[in-house]
Design a protein that fits this description.
596 residues, 2 domains, single chain, Rossmann fold
Length: 596
């Protein structure tokens, strides 16, 4: 409305406005306007007929399904429940659609209002392009519409922080052959451009304007389990170059990626169980706790939080520093029968069975006695373990990665036995590798080539981080260091040492500013890998540019807009209701029409 009022080309006094939750208004029905009109007979309620429409233009809420009120969820289920079920898009607490934004339901319901050939133009979050539920949503789109364009925007184009957005332009079409032969435009705008330039991009065969990455794809190619972020940035060509090179193999050929590296981590992976070891209140130890209970024999060096590792190596000195600072830098590793344990250790286990409780919030099972948690009970049933307290042992792990990366998925090398919790992706070697080969591999894993695969195949969250899951890690093309010459191993090892040395000088590689200062070291690795692949410099720079764009669009989702601010303006347009006498205004449990 704000935009329309600025350029009124077609004035009218006959505007039909319905103040109601969108999902409570069925298409092709009659509703009453929220105001009365006067005529010769007096004051009467105006009836509005909602017909099939030629266009739907909207900027629906980006709220997640699990965050809206129960009444609104019920309205959505009544309106499009069967369609949601058909495409596997039912919202819920668990499963692949946990993070579903309700904007996708606006698109699905809006389709019911359109005539054949009618169009939808919406500004929505770009989060779905990089998620599992986005695959299901894409399948709905391709089976209902001609995809005219998906234009993704960098947040840097706007004057206030906003949730990262994309524009979708769709045309309803019931004829499958026409949909399949449609040319869909995918674009990413990361610089200054004009509306006219983007319209030309969509409607003509013109080249992408400056600051825009774009490609055209036949809609028939969009069918399948492909995330549309991969369609937009097209890493397939680079992946094929890696796959066809004899010096590259899939990660799974050299390493087994696990979440954590205890024996239990491996068993949980093999049986598709949750990989966490159990309550940190019991298994994570500091030096004081070790001394208090006499656990020295069963306390093993550990990384119990990924913030404990902020470089590209994790050394014994790093661990000693954590321990001396009183940090929880040990795991309780006790692969021994109770009958063979000393008194102090038995008392510690008994404490875990009677008094130690989880401290997470109640909705996630908080307050439970540690030994009674699901994972501990599951382990107690396994004959390979002596009880709920038994994690088995620690599997040697020369390389591990941050599972949830922010500006970079960092791969680190360690040269001593250290246990890792489930938010670290441990790379367990399947063949014997020298320390120099491990360093050479770590150099590649920290390159832009590897990061490109993670950005386009990993699981992006609504908070802006990129998740590296074990199944994705298994498929990453990596250097087959066994096929490299000794000279190449040494050169890559030197490049890795240069990266690590710079990170030490910066006192970490765990912030945006520090990653930026490591650009030269990472680019040196990129150039070496590019030379191995015999790629022209332009291709190497393209990979680096794609990674920068992908990281930028992902992390921009973490910058929430002020709820009262209209994008692009600093002046508040909508006031948040003030605190009432009954308590705070609960935005999580209000109907969608509350703001009207």
């Amino acid at each position: 409305m704000n935009l329309a009022m600025r350029d009124v080309r077609h004035p009218t006094s006959d505007m039909n406005i319905v103040v109601e939750d969108f999902f409570n208004v069925p298409p092709r029905t009659a509703v009453f306007a929220p105001y009365a009109v006067k005529n010769a007979k007096g004051q009467i309620k105006k009836e509005i007929i909602i017909p099939n429409v030629d266009a739907v233009v909207a900027n629906p809420p980006y709220t997640r399904y699990v965050e809206i009120s129960e009444s609104t969820r019920n309205s959505i289920d009544r309106a499009i429940g069967p369609i949601m079920k058909t495409y596997g898009l039912q919202g819920g607490i668990r499963g692949k659609v946990t993070e579903t934004g309700i904007y996708i339901y606006f698109v699905m319901y809006a389709a019911q209002f359109l005539t054949e050939g009618g169009r939808i133009g919406m500004i929505i979050s770009n989060g779905w392009l990089q998620t599992d539920y986005g695959i299901a949503f894409a399948n709905f789109l391709t089976s209902t519409f001609k995809i005219k364009a998906v234009i993704d925007f960098s947040s840097r184009l706007f004057s206030v922080p906003i949730i990262a957005t994309c524009v979708i332009l769709l045309e309803k079409c019931s004829i499958e052959n026409e949909r399949e032969n449609n040319n869909a435009v995918f674009g990413y705008v990361n610089g200054k451009t004009t509306v006219d330039a983007l319209i030309d991009l969509v409607e003509t065969e013109s080249k992408p304007p400056k600051g825009t990455i774009a490609r055209r794809v036949k809609q028939r190619q969009l069918v399948g389990d492909q995330k549309w972020i991969q369609v937009m940035f097209n890493p397939e060509r680079m992946e094929q170059a890696l796959a066809s090179n004899s010096t590259f193999v899939k990660m799974s050929e050299l390493f087994q990626p696990l979440r954590g590296n205890t024996t239990w981590s491996k068993v949980a992976f093999d049986k598709a169980l949750r990989p966490n070891v159990g309550p940190g209140e019991f298994f994570d130890l500091d030096k004081g706790t070790v001394n208090k209970w006499g656990l020295e024999k069963f306390a093993k060096p550990a990384i119990t939080g990924i913030r404990q590792s902020k470089f590209f190596t994790f050394t014994k000195n790093d661990w000693r520093e954590l321990s001396s600072e009183g940090k929880k830098a040990y795991y309780f590793i006790c692969h021994t029968r109770k009958s063979d344990l000393p008194k102090g250790v038995l008392e510690y286990i008994k404490w875990g069975e009677t008094q130690c409780r989880t401290t997470i919030r109640e909705s996630r099972g908080g307050g439970e006695i540690c030994s009674r948690t699901w994972v501990c009970q599951e382990r107690a049933k396994n004959k390979d373990f002596y009880g709920w307290y038994d994690l088995g042992g620690v599997i040697p792990t020369p390389i591990f990665a941050v599972r949830h990366g922010w500006y970079k998925t960092r791969f680190a090398v360690t040269d001593f036995p250290v246990a890792m919790y489930d938010a670290a992706i441990a790379l367990i070697p399947k063949t014997k590798l020298t320390y120099s080969q491990i360093q050479a591999e770590a150099a590649y894993l920290n390159s832009s080539f590897c990061q490109l695969h993670i950005e386009t195949h990993g699981r992006a969250t609504s908070g802006g981080v990129i998740g590296l899951e074990t199944k994705v890690a298994e498929q990453i093309p990596i250097l087959d260091v066994r096929a490299l010459s000794q000279k190449q191993i040494e050169e890559l090892s030197m490049l890795f040492n240069g990266l690590e040395q710079k990170a030490r000088e910066l006192e970490g590689a765990d912030t945006f500013e520090k990653i930026q200062l490591l650009t030269n070291e990472i680019q040196n690795i990129d150039e070496y890998v590019g030379n191995l692949l015999r790629l022209p410099k332009g291709e190497i720079k393209l990979v680096q540019a794609m990674v920068r764009s992908l990281v930028d669009r992902r992390t921009s989702r973490a910058h929430e807009a002020k709820p009262e601010t209209v994008a692009g303006k600093d002046m508040p347009r909508i006031k948040i209701p003030k605190k009432s006498k009954k308590g705070l205004f609960d935005t999580a449990n209000q109907p969608l029409d509350k703001w009207t």
